[in-house]
Specification:
about 250 residues, 8 helices
Length: about 250
């Protein structure tokens, strides 16, 4: 009898949707939007990692809150794709939205909506079959969150730009010319490295928005092999950009 039950269950298991590519992309995208200078607690197997409380103030706090909020949503997508039950049952992004509100009301409203959607998903005990609906309901707001993060990050970078290379003052003695040229080359190489890393982080954020839009557009075909292959290509590109961004 037990053997018969296993045989009846086998076709159901074989036909279960495979959202592994979505899970892996969402996890990679989550890492791409988070700052690299904050230690993260490894995700327990029963729930996504909750957002870290933001203690920064001002525009820097708004940027960090948008990063944490976008990452929390992507983490929940990964968990849903892995057929997990999301939690908590309330809005986990309320405090983050409050940090964003004074600087970007549109981004704050979109962040609050994503948090409400996360709470709704937890209260309804949703799992992988709800993934398509989650993408349909979330993509417009997620795009607004990423756009707000791009705006606020650009504004913060304008306040703290990369230092320019200082121009030489007066004639340089011949004995010091070679040393001055070497120091200038080192500074220029460092500035170029930081610029390349910054550009990679900006490009990675744009790729995250594009990837989420791709999932939304293909929400009814996420378990198809062709769709999964394209999702994996995007994941690989995100990983490449992340490595370049960390180099800065």
């Amino acid at each position: 009898m037990r053997a018969l039950g296993l045989l009846l269950l086998a076709p159901l298991v074989a036909c279960a949707p495979d959202y592994t590519a979505v899970r892996d992309w969402s996890s990679q995208a989550r890492d791409a939007v988070l700052p690299a200078d904050i230690a993260r607690v490894p995700s327990p197997p029963v729930a996504p990692v909750p957002p870290v409380p933001v203690t920064l103030e001002g525009q820097a706090g708004a940027v960090r809150a948008l990063q944490e909020g976008a990452a929390a949503w992507l983490g929940m997508l990964a968990f849903l794709a892995d057929d997990g039950w999301p939690g908590p049952r309330g809005n986990p992004l309320t405090d983050l939205a409050a940090k964003v509100e004074p600087f970007d009301p549109e981004g704050a409203a979109a962040l609050k909506y994503l948090g409400d959607l996360m709470g709704y998903a937890a209260r309804r005990d949703t799992r992988a079959p709800w993934l398509s609906t989650a993408l349909e309901r979330s993509d417009p707001s997620f795009q607004k969150v990423v756009a707000a993060l791009q705006r606020q990050s650009a504004g913060l970078a304008a306040v703290f730009p990369l230092p320019p290379q200082p121009a030489p003052r007066g004639p340089v003695p011949p004995a010091q010319r070679a040393l001055a040229a070497e120091v200038a080359a080192v500074r220029e190489a460092e500035a170029a490295r930081q610029r390349a890393a910054h550009e990679a982080r900006v490009a990675a954020l744009a790729r995250v928005a594009e990837g989420h839009a791709f999932l939304f557009a293909h929400r009814d075909d996420l378990d198809k092999s062709d769709t999964a292959r394209l999702i994996r290509v995007q994941e690989q590109e995100l990983r490449r950009l992340m490595l370049l961004g960390i180099a800065g």
